Amino acid sequence: MKIVITATIESVSQARNLLDVGVDILYLGESKFGLRIKHSFTREEMREVVVLAHRAGARVVIAVNALMHTDEMKSIFEYLKFLEEIAADFVAVADAGVIYKLQKEQINLPYIYDSSIFVTNAEQVNFWAKRGSVGAVLARELPKSELYAMRRNFLIPTEILVYGATVIQHSKRNLLDNYFQFLGVDEEKNLERGWFLTESQNSSSRYSIFEDDQGTHIFANNDLNLLLELETLSSWGYRQWKLEGLYTAGDDFVEIAKIFMEVKFMLEEDRWDLARIALLNERIRQLHPKNRGLDTGFFSLNSEEIQ
């Protein structure tokens, strides 16, 4: 089976560069309807990205995976019709109300079930597969023992994060804004400001936190890098890989995508080279933001150790 690499984008120009590298799917959206969108794309930009991707033989996923309230649902039909009109290939959806709207209004937009932090078993994936989903996004908190146990049970392709920031908590509430109001100070709360939380019992912990149109987002101490585990994941059937560039900007993210594309071709052509993989892994460490750690996240943990 072909390996498919999805990469987030932060601009139209970065989209061009990622397409030149050969990325299969571009992931983008606007902040009103999508979670953890680094750049909220205008409709004109979305249209341009779709055209660029299709010319390159690639596809586009639009994030529509926010927690929808009544106000968002009032305008979701018009937004979905726009995405259908520009020929977006997929929408990533978490809210059952959006799925209902897609199907009730017969909007021609295949959907990927993306309630990512909650998708921890094959039965949940298959529930949505039987209700029209063409793919699903697995939780980031799955150790390899659970991934192995589930490997043959999915009815649809399942995406796994192989590089980037791992979200561990999301609240629709503006927690940072409330905190700063309590202090009586005016502070930027966006991604670029670089706030983090530290546990009182662990002074080395640094949980990145920011606030946007969708509320407050908290991320794991370190970002994820599963490059050394890709042969294993591929052999188990996990061949939908996601690259998350939320904290890795511009050309550095494109270079990292290029590395994962090289490994993809290694596996597809049955020429896995451990020495070359070790060099590529070190190159990722050089390109990764210096103020952010890298590890294998939950992948290498014993499932009994996860709390």
Key words describing this protein structure:
single chain; alpha/beta; TIM Barrel; 8-stranded parallel beta barrel; 4-stranded antiparallel sheet; 10 helices
Topology:
Blueprint: E1 4-8, H1 12-21, E2 25-29, H2 43-55, E3 59-64, H3 70-85, E4 90-93, H4 96-104, E5 111-113, H5 122-129, E6 135-137, H6 144-150, E7 158-164, E8 167-171, H7 175-183, E9 196-199, E10 202-212, E11 215-219, E12 222-225, H8 230-235, E13 240-243, H9 250-268, H10 274-287, E14 293-295
Parallel strand pairs: 1-2, 1-13, 2-3, 3-4, 4-5, 5-6, 6-7, 7-13, 12-14
Antiparallel strand pairs: 7-12, 8-11, 9-10, 10-11
Helix pairs in contact: 1-2, 1-9, 3-4, 9-10
Report the structural category. Answer: alpha/beta
CATH class of the largest domain: Alpha Beta
Please give the domain count.
2
pLDDT under 50 segments (min length 5)? none
Number of strands: 14
- How far apart lie the N and C ends? 34 Å
CATH topology of the largest domain: TIM Barrel
